[in-house]
Amino acid sequence: MSDARRDNAFVERLAQWFRASARDLPWRATDAQGRRNPYFSLVSETMLQQTQVARVIEKFDEFTTRFPTIESLARARESSVLAAWSGLGYYRRARHLHGAAKEIAKSHQGQVPHDIDDLIALPGVGRYTAGAIASIVFDQPAPIVDGNVARVLLRIEGNTIDPRSTDGSRWLWNRAAQLAQRASHTSDVAAFNEGMMELGATICTPRSPKCGQCPVASLCRARRDGLTGTIPPTKKPARVTTIHHDCLLFVDARGRRLVRQRSDDGLWAGMWQPPTLEGNGKPATKKQIETWLGAPVSRVAAFEHLTSHRRVKFRIWRPQTSQDTSLPGDWRTARQIERLALSNPHRRILLEL
């Protein structure tokens, strides 16, 4: 089979498979003319960065109900956007999405642009997100490459190059662009691009790919050569830094908690937490915590929270003192705290312990 015929077969089979087998996801809903909502696609693509589909499904309807349009998101306070984002992590994405909505409202009459350059100019929108929106929503022959797409392309071609290298990234984007152009002429670029993402997420998985269910298995050179287990090459684990957070859980007679807002930079920037003593070296001693507070404490809980590059070791202390403390903060009820921008571990401390 010639290269051209093989490419045609790949894009046509994959697009056909996606149209028949695509998961029913809320951001894939279409209007009476079969068109996607561009704003919902912008929201979902932002949420899906570094977050599993199942978790995004839980938050997507809630977020878009609270902010149903670009204009409503653009007008919202950042604190409200972060509160609605709580639970998804990587809160910089929420700030970028908020900034993108403001820019779209200001410069694009509230309409998500379809031009790649205009999309990439938006806060937080990179080459992949721009390509996904341009191709899936506006049916433009724009390439996309994320982790799932990279794995599919490398395996289908039997290419052992490291996708994280400069040469690997260049090859992937060039190959994706070639196939997107071909799909725009012979098939359906939206279904093909999304089909690559879907195949990587459900069939061509990192471990134990389901080759027997793959619609393009007969075209896969990695399968032919027995290389599916080694393509792409394993990523070296990221270096993880351990930090210590000792949190004081004040609860007054009315059930209110003492909370304070974090600074506008660093980990969990601008979000809310109980009064916390933080350190990067050894954990604080009980005596150091009591000296900081000026009163005795007793430990009530401890747990760890992992981010991509940090292991945060939490210890939660209950002050053995009256609620009149000199520590800065605001007293809030549980209902009020639920509406604040909270990280998952701080939500656990303030609302579940």
- Listing every helix as H and every strand as E from the N terminus to the C terminus, the arrangement reads HHHHHHHHHHHHEEEEHEEEHH
CATH architecture of the largest domain: Orthogonal Bundle
> What do we call the CATH homologous superfamily of the largest domain?
Hypothetical protein, domain 2
> What is the number of domains?
2
Helix count, per DSSP? 15
> Tell me, what's the shape?
elongated
| Total beta strands | 7
Give the N-to-C terminal Cα separation. Answer: 63 Å
Mean pLDDT comes to: 93
Q: Nearest-angstrom radius of gyration?
A: 24 Å
Looking across the biggest beta sheet, what order are the strands in? 4-1-6-5
Helix fraction, binned, reads: 40-55%
Which CATH first-tier class of the largest domain would you pick?
Answer: Mainly Alpha
Largest β-sheet summary:
4 strands, mixed
User: How is the CATH topology of the largest domain named?
Assistant: Endonuclease III, domain 1
Could you say which structural class the secondary elements and strand pairing correspond to? alpha+beta
Which stretches are low in confidence, meaning pLDDT under 50 for 5 or more residues running? Answer: none
